[in-house]
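Example record used in the benchmark description.
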Amino acid sequence: MPDHSTISKFLSNRLGGPAFWQELFCDHLRAIDQEGFLSHDIWVADETELKANANKRKREVYYTQTTVQEEENLEFINEFRERYGKKPLRAKKEKNVLKRVNQSPVDADARLSVKHEKRGRFAYFEHRVVDALHNFIIASEVTAANIPGHQVLPAQLDHLRELFGRYCTEIALDSGYYNARFIKKIFSRKIFAYIAYRRIPVKEHPQCRRTQFRRIKEDLYACPCGVPFYYRTTTRKGSHEFKPPKGSCQGCPFAKKPGEDRVLRLSIHQETYNELRQQRLSLRGKILRSVRPSTVELSFAHSKELHGLRYARYRGVQKVKTQVLMTAIIQNLKKWAKLRSLQKIGLHLTSHIIEGSV
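Model output (structure tokens):
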């Protein structure tokens, strides 16, 4: 049995880190795809947390200077304001802000995550994409725990397009990907997306929610009681404000406060959210909702229960990525060997119909 340092030097010096494992990961995916075991119709993506090899109680605090840039939606906001005779908003000057960062003294790449502990612990996120046919892992990326999945998935989809020559037809995601900019990127790639609804806490009466308002025109909505709400302005934060004639909400049983008129606020990306809602409530969306738990969640469960991926064994994002890629390759090889053994007895579980098979 070789010493652990011998294995470590072999992995780092001879193989050259995660670049070798990434190339091996792509090569074996091409071989699996050539045999027809991968499906390009439905993909499922999610992220999971890996506890870093660092003490959560020992923290180093430092401040970094970041530049707050102008809002990306300002041009779209001003276009809508000018359409209704409102003055365009001026762009704010860029300003430098000090940002507090908690860092581990032994693992500088890990970041605090409050996903499982209230005080937080140092962790990494693994962003994984699997296919819905046989649950093969087709993409895996490791980042610090402060980077959400909707910032990583577009690059993963582009990489898979280079690998397989096409995007998937449908994709199933959880509510963590409920982001307007990300949704537009998915729609621009002509992908049908199911994204679980994120319930944002708002203080609304159950009988007078904003989803129950009926759209009459672009600048006119009607509340459940039939009171018209007219467009007033578009704020810098990215929301359209609709208000009724003054005093229209007096005596309304659904009013927050007596004598106070309701203000309807809708996002400037409301059309994108409405399109996503139609896809989520469609028959295809309901089918994708049932697919997600039995694919990517099961893949994460196998990685953590059978392959020790609940914890990061190494320190540094590059070494953790090596661990994740090795685990993904092992899971795929086990599944690939099982499917090939079933072919020998005449059971061809491929993505296309094989005629004349024995």
